[in-house]
Structure formats: C-alpha cells, structure tokens
Amino acid sequence: MEAKTAPPQRVQSIAEAGLKQLPREYIQPPEARPAGRRMNESLPAPGEGVPVVDLFLFDPASFEDVRREIQRACGEWGAFQIVNHGIPRDLLERMIAAGRRFFDLPQDEKRAYSCDSRSPASEGYGSRMLSKDDSVLDWRDYFDHHTLPLSRRNPSRWPDLGDYREVVAEYSDAMRELAQKLLRMASESLSLAPSFIEEAIGEVYQNITVSFYPPCPQPELALGLQSHSDMGAITLLIQDDVGGLEVLKDGLWIPIVPLPGAVIVILADQTEIITNGEYRSSVHRAVVNPDRPRLSVAAFYDPSKSVEILPAAPLVAGGGGSPARYRGVVYGDYVSSWYRKGPDGKRNIDALLIDNQRS
Ligand SMILES: O=C(O)CCC(=O)C(=O)O
Ligand SMILES: [Fe+2]
C-alpha cells in the first residue's frame, strides 16, 4: 500500500536515481524473465518473422493476394505490421515526439497529470495498468488518454505542451479510421459483410496510451509490460526505433522489429470471439534494455461495455462454420473480470472457451 502522503513511485524516477540493482518489486519470476526465452535459438529467418502487410495492394485487382496475407497474418499471428496504411508519416512522428516531450518534463510537472491509481483505466499519468497486491510491477510509466466517443474526449486533461492536445486529437481520428478499415478487411477476408465486426462491437471506445520504458539496470530480470493479450477489438501501435515489443508464436517470443513509418496491428480478444477463433488475439509483452528509453503509443479500439460479444452466426455451425468455440460475454463483464484477475500471463479469453477446443 502506498502511504497517503507519498506520491506514487514512478519507474522513470527510479531509473534516474541510477541504481545498479533492480528493486525487488520489479523482479519477474524466473519463468517470465526475458532471459529465459528460447528466442536466440531460433530467431525468425527473413520472411518468417511477424508479417508485414502492404495495404497499398489492397485494391480489387490484387484482392485475392492481400486477402490471403490478411488471413495468414490474422489467423496464424494475430499481430502484424502494416505499411502504406494512409496515415501521414508526419502525424506518426509528431505523436511520438509529443509523448517524448511529456516524459522529458520534470517529475513534479508530470505529476500534475497523475491518474487516479485506485481506479482502473483512469485517464492521465500513471505507472501500471492494474494493481494487485502480489503482482510484479512493470518497468513502465504511461499516459492514458480517453479519446472516443467524443463525449469522453476532454483535451484539457492532457498535457498543456505546445501542440500536444491537437496532435492527440488528430491521431485519435486517424487511428479510428484505420481501425475501421482493418476491421472491414478482416470481416471481408472471412466472407462476412464488411461492416460485420464493426456492427458487432457497437459504439466504439478508444483510449490512447503513451508508454515510456526507462533504461533498466537489470533488463534480464524485468519486463516493461508483462505477457498479456489486449481485451478489446483491435490495437494499433507505433513505436520509436528502440524495439522491445515481442509476440508469442508457437511457444517462442518473436520481436517486432521497428520498421520506420509502419503501424503495428494487434488483434484483441473480442475479435477472436467474434471470428469464432478463426482470427487470434495476440499474446505479447515488452522487454526493456539498459541503455535507451523506449516510447510506444497504443490506440485501443474497444466495444461498448453494454454490448454482448458472440461468435458471428455465419461462422458457427448452422451458419456454415464450425461449432461455437466461445461463450458470449457482455464486454463490461469481461473487462471487470480482467481487472479482478489480472493478466497473469494467461489469456482471459480462455475462460470463455467451450470444451477447451483451442489452447
Ligand atoms: O509498448 C508496447 O510495445 C506494448 C504496449 C502494449 O502492449 C499495451 O499497452 O497493451
Ligand atoms: Fe498490449
């Protein structure tokens, strides 16, 4: 428990104090440590890593090729990078630069924007996604923005720092459009109506989280963000050139190597349910390094809390597909159970599996 008077500890302040040893709360259990990964034994050969999909090719003339690429990226990986996505490079760079400007502020100026650490997903500056007395802490600070629907968007709560507020608003709108485009492609590639997934998730809630991972004195013992899958429908992420995001594929942690100008797509749990497991939500984590701070910006695109999420009728038995693999769930209940249990390295979605047909 934090003492009432002491401000919550920020990872960046700990890092700046220049410790040689990682404080105990940040030491991961041996099985979760990045040093334990078997990654070096089998780094992906060129062309075998996380897919890169060129959306420029997504036109009717080459539709079949891209459709196959989308099917492979969503079905086998649940995470991929996209290029030629239509978002101006300049906007991506201004978003990263805005995030960096905030984290460069002196600690007491940042603290003026602190979120309410007792309430999950509260807006503002904070140090971890969930709090559970026995959990190991992430080597990460963040700033969470509530951006959509517009009724939740209140830029006066965001850093008053040059064009910061304009950039976040512009970025939010651009990422909403891109998420819609991708969900349409995902629907179409499963022969669903293009608007199927969008309609299934109802009014969209978007949060934008800037994550800051300070240099870590013992990165082999820590994680910037522990293994998890995202709860909502789809996450669009950009990162600077440092690298650290990894996705789990067939038991191996595969790095998503920074690709300038690319956007990383991470399918989240509700898309896996709606597609009846044809498309998978990606289990991912962030590792840290001793030398350079890393910054990423995630735009989470989530269903309304009141919507019931179910496997799509055309994809289950009766509609021509396989038996339903997941029980339906009201999204708000899914979120509450996630915050109660925490990710614990497991996929929350597995609790909804019928007969555990997929592991
Ligand atoms: O910073 C990253 O690369 C990952 C962030 C992430 O997975 C999340 O915020 O859910
Ligand atoms: Fe994530």
UniProtKB/TrEMBL annotation:
Top-rank lineage group of the source organism: Eukaryota
Name of a matching Pfam family: DIOX_N
Span of domain Fe2OG dioxygenase: 203-303
InterPro entries per the UniProt record, alphabetical: DIOX_N, IPNS-like_FE2OG_OXY, IPNS-like_sf, Oxoglu/Fe-dep_dioxygenase_dom, Plant_2OG-oxidoreductases
Membrane spanning residue stretches: none
Entry annotated with the keyword Flavoprotein: no
SUPFAM superfamilies listed in its UniProt record: Clavaminate synthase-like
PANTHER family xrefs: OXOGLUTARATE/IRON-DEPENDENT DIOXYGENASE
Family membership: Belongs to the iron/ascorbate-dependent oxidoreductase family.
Name of the featured protein: Fe2OG dioxygenase domain-containing protein
Species assigned in the record: Spirodela intermedia (Intermediate duckweed)
